[in-house]
Amino acid sequence: MMSSLKTFVGFNLILLHAFCFINLSYSDSTEPEVRRLSFRELLRVRRRVCADGTYPHDGKTCCLCPAGQHLIQHCKTSVDDTQCEICEPGSTYSSDPNFKDSCEPCTSCSHENANLEVEESCTIYRDTKCKCKKDHYCTSGTGTCKICQPCDKCDSTGVKEPCSATSNAVCNEESKGLGGGPIAGIVITVLVVVLVCAGFILFRKKIQERFTKRSDSPNTSNPVTDPLLPVDMVPHLDDVAEILGWKDMKAVAMSSEMLAAIESAQLTHPSDSDTWTIELLKKWHEKTGRTASVELIKILQSKNKKSKAEKIREKLYGGNPATQSCSA
Known about the structure:
Elements lengths: L1 H47 L5 E4 L2 E4 L5 E5 L9 E4 L5 E2 L10 E2 L10 E5 L8 E4 L3 E2 L11 E2 L8 E3 L8 E2 L10 H35 L20 H19 L3 H10 L4 H16 L3 H11 L3 H12 L11
Antiparallel strand pairs: 1-2, 3-4, 5-6, 7-8, 9-10, 11-12
């Protein structure tokens, strides 16, 4: 009897242990699976809502419109019901997520006489990128340039440094010597010797004349070194502009930091360098004032344009600049 009872109790204990083991195993295998599915669903919701960020509006948080779109209506019932519209291709763009009422207008590269062309067309995501046309350059750099200048041509001298998108061409210096070969070498040598001898003779003659003048009239002033007096340039502006030419007039204006006036003259009168020159000379004369005649000759001399400086001096002062009267 006792042995049967022990056997029955032992069998029940074995069944109890088996039931507890099966119950624990089932709990361990199902509970983590339920948590993982819930976490994944949460991630999907977070990724789906406001991928480009949010902004506040009337106490609510709304999703931003993505790049390439603009806002039509703010969100009302939920964060992700913001209504957006795609920018007009080729006309407008937006480069960043936003809540603006409209897209930005595309930049035009076809401004008259600006010498620009399209490098990259406008898309709904980025603005137009402009560049200088062939044989033109802009010192302010590509992307920010508003007007490109034509490159200098070096037909007679050859190119030392080619024109680039941000710098003008540099020409070789003009050479006035004869061609190569033995005969040319002999001729050049003879000419050099003759010029040196002639220069030496002239130098000695000038020295003698200077000492003679000083001994005869020690108080006489030298007309070569007498300072110029300002004269009225207005009656001679057309003649002075013709002597200067556009290239040297532009150099004079650049020395006075008149870049805006240069661009204005070119844009106002397309493809007319004579009109550019006279208009820019008038503006430079107004800026410089009563001493413009003296300053113009000084600037040309400093830039080694002595021939043009002398022609303008003769036009303004005639034979003796020291005797001219000062004019307002």
